[in-house]
């Protein structure tokens, strides 16, 4: 029985009681959790192994394609650590994007980068959308190129102001 069903069928007294005879964390839930952990580790490994790097004005970026099973924060921060990058840009099959910068970098403004992709957020973390369908390895490569080209154009235009 799923945890939602267990919670919805239990009374508050059951949930607070030490004698609750239907534990919320049972073998099935434990198996599901272990399966999720295994799958998320595989997907994170794929994201890291297939990421690409580029530099602009001395800042190091890493771009990765991530499965939705992973949170954008987890994917982005893992890429930053793995590649010792200043910022990460993660995109998903549905076109969603996430921008993160490393804790030590205050020159990269994620909200400004996200604005180029119909998004916004904070200086240190933001989100946006890439206007393309990601259905194949070629689409992933094309999206990475588009992201890099857009970031480079942003910096070029910014320095010409």
Describe the structure.
With 161 residues, the protein is α+β, with helices and mostly antiparallel strands. It has six helices and six strands, in the order H-H-H-E-E-H-E-E-H-E-E-H. A six-stranded mixed beta sheet has the order 1-2-3-4-6-5, with helices on both faces.
Name a few traits of the molecule.
161 residues; alpha+beta; six-stranded mixed beta sheet; 6 helices
Percent strand equals 15-25%
How are the strands ordered across the major sheet? 1-2-3-4-6-5
Sequence stretches where pLDDT stays below 50 over 5 or more residues: none
Structural class: alpha+beta
Radius of gyration (CA) equals: 20 Å
Shape, principal axes of CA atoms: elongated
SSE run: HHHEEHEEHEEH
Largest sheet, if any?
A: 6 strands, mixed
Determine the fraction of residues in helical runs and give it as a percent range. Answer: 40-55%
Distance between the termini: 60 Å
The helix tally amounts to 6
Average predicted local confidence, pLDDT: 87
- DSSP strand tally: 6
Write the SSE topology.
Layout: H1 3-9, H2 12-16, H3 27-49, E1 52-56, E2 59-65, H4 72-83, E3 87-91, E4 96-101, H5 110-115, E5 120-121, E6 125-129, H6 137-159
Parallel strand pairs: 2-3
Antiparallel strand pairs: 1-2, 3-4, 4-6, 5-6
What would a concise description of this structure say?
By secondary structure, the protein is α+β, with helices and mostly antiparallel strands. The chain has helices spanning 3-9, 12-16, 27-49, 72-83, 110-115, 137-159; strands at 52-56, 59-65, 87-91, 96-101, 120-121, 125-129.
């Amino acid at each position: 029985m799923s945890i939602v069903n267990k919670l919805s069928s239990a009374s508050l007294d059951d949930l607070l009681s030490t004698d609750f005879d239907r534990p919320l964390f049972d073998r099935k839930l434990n198996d599901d959790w272990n399966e999720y952990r295994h799958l998320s580790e595989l997907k994170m490994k794929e994201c890291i192994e297939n990421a690409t790097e580029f530099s602009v004005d001395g800042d190091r970026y890493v771009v990765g394609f991530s499965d939705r099973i992973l949170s954008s924060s987890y994917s982005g921060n893992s890429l930053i650590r793995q590649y010792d990058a200043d910022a990460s840009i993660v995109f998903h099959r549905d076109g969603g994007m996430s921008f993160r910068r490393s804790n030590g970098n205050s020159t990269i403004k994620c909200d400004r980068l996200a604005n180029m992709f119909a998004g916004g957020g904070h200086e240190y973390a933001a989100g946006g959308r890439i206007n393309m369908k990601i259905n194949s390895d070629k689409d992933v490569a094309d999206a990475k190129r588009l992201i890099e080209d857009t970031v480079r154009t942003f910096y070029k235009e910014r320095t010409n102001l």
